[in-house]
Write a structure and sequence with these properties.
The longest helix has 29 residues. 40% of the residues are buried. Helices cover 71% and strands 3% of the residues. Helix 4 packs across helix 7 and helix 8 runs antiparallel to helix 9. Strand 1 and strand 2 form a beta hairpin. Among the domains are: 211 residues, Na+/H+ antiporter like fold; 44 residues, no CATH class. The N terminus is likely disordered. It has a two-stranded antiparallel ribbon with strand order 1-2. The chain has 18 helices and 2 strands. It has 456 residues and is mainly α.
């Protein structure tokens, strides 16, 4: 087979082909939002697929796959759980790891870094958690479903962001930052609730082992270890310890994320000087007539460029950007596939909607979220404690308050914990989550679309 030689003309064509790619600068938030659009659509597709399968003749196969046992052996240690359990306690730990990275970034350099600026999303998130929980508790007071009071507290960032993006220019850019900050505080609240209120009987030896591994992670941070391997190994040990302790294992993801270094190894001016010198050297030694693979010195310069970029970017930043696509396009869709498949009998649908658990979830997510967030924002602004982001009025805030009622991922996750071993109540909770997510998503989208032309 003939080997085609690389000519200067070929290089020029290749350069022209890739020029737009290299010149296009996509900010991290833009990449995040772009992923959330596709992720939201994929989540929706997986949810519909799970619902269809669970309500057809394929339902027995669906249940069989979900309850298939998978074993992992580490010497004498054997971990044996169903596929459903591995996804909810294993893969979701990676999702919570990403949540932890986002929380740390927002606190250090994001919307939550400045107290006055952070008060608005923090206050809105707290109102959006407390009011739904109170509404649910009032509806289910003294009933068997009281344990699910935390289900309507959560907001699904992928679906909510996706709805905003579909509005295009009708959604002010500042809304994205506010909603992202609100959802991150919301996730932090959910993590605390899971740790405090949904912990089973504690095995103290395993919990102490978890404290030990967390201490080692802190030491890794303090001594300046920046490679991912120590955090992966110790984080896995922390996950295993918490799994055995009775504390929900997904919390290991958040705790590990908080120890990941967030600082750059290279100073900005030094980085700029290094990149300039390396690019100058590349221009001097590369030969347009030949592939860079034939020039070991050019390859060395390229490797130095890559190392320099890695030194400038913090481990937290690299891990967050690397894990977000995996979370958006693999973990969350898989979670939806194994958790959203609920059998719905049309004859009993009216009874489902009248059930206190379903009513509590719907009223909490649709009504409670909206009232809690909007009222908190209004009070903070009127009291002068904070101010609305530039270009956003109270009408837009009301629309975002509606969109925050899309609970889905975290709401279903908390429902699985709240009604463990109570499939009837879990079914009612999931019906409420799906119904309220549709109502909140559609109403929020329509409201923001209509008020876009009417100013603030």
């Amino acid at each position: 087979m003939a080997v085609k030689k690389t000519s200067a003309e070929d290089c020029a064509l290749d350069s022209s082909r890739w020029e737009k790619t290299f010149r296009r600068i996509k900010m991290p938030i833009e990449a995040f939002i772009h992923d959330d659009i596709a992720s939201g659509l994929l989540l929706m597709g997986c949810t519909v697929l799970a619902l269809v399968v669970a309500n057809t003749k394929l339902a027995p196969y669906y249940d069989h796959i979900r309850h298939t046992e998978v074993s992992l052996h580490f010497g004498s240690l054997v971990l044996k759980h169903t596929l459903h359990h591995w996804i909810n306690d294993g893969l979701m730990a990676l999702f919570f790891f990403l949540v932890g990275l986002e929380i740390k970034r927002e606190i250090l350099v994001g919307e939550l870094a400045v107290l006055r600026q952070a008060l608005l999303p923090i206050g809105a998130a707290l109102g959006g958690m407390l009011v739904p929980a109170l509404i649910y508790a009032m509806i289910n007071r003294g009933g068997v479903g009281m344990g699910g009071w935390a289900i309507p507290m959560a907001t699904d960032i992928a679906f909510a962001m996706g709805a905003l993006v579909l509005l295009g220019d009708r959604a002010p850019k500042a809304l994205f930052g506010f909603l992202l900050a609100l959802a991150i505080v919301d996730d932090l609240g959910a993590v605390i609730v899971i740790a405090v209120f949904y912990t089973q009987t504690i095995v103290w030896q395993a919990l102490l082992a978890g404290v030990f591994f967390f201490g080692l992670l802190v030491v890794c941070n303090l001594v300046g270890l920046r490679g991912p391997l120590p955090y992966v190994i110790l984080g896995s040990c922390l996950w295993l310890a918490l799994l055995k302790s009775g504390v929900h294992a997904t919390l290991a993801g958040v705790l590990t994320a908080l120890t990941v270094p967030a600082n750059s190894r290279c100073a900005p001016l030094k980085f700029s000087e290094l990149m300039f010198n390396l690019l100058w050297r590349f221009e001097k030694i590369h030969d347009p007539e030949h592939s860079v693979m034939r020039n070991s010195e050019v390859q060395g310069v390229l490797q130095s460029l890559e190392n320099g970029v890695h030194s400038m970017a913090s481990p937290l930043q690299r891990l967050e950007q690397g894990l977000h696509p995996w979370s958006a396009f693999f973990i969350l869709p898989l979670f939806a596939l194994v958790n959203a498949g609920i059998p719905i009998e049309l004859a009993n649908l009216a009874d489902n909607l009248k059930h206190p658990v379903t009513m509590g979830v719907v009223m909490g997510l649709v009504g409670g979220k909206c009232v809690g967030i909007y009222l908190s924002v209004w009070l903070l602004v009127k009291a002068g404690a904070s101010r609305l982001p530039t270009g956003i009025g109270l009408r837009q805030m009301f629309g975002v308050s509606l969109l925050a009622g899309i609970g889905f991922t975290m709401s279903i996750f908390i429902g699985e914990l709240a009604f463990l071993g109570q499939p009837e109540l879990l079914l009612e909770a999931k019906v409420g989550v799906l119904l309220s997510s549709v109502i909140a998503g559609v109403s929020g989208f329509v409201w923001l679309y209509l008020v876009a032309d009417k100013g603030k």
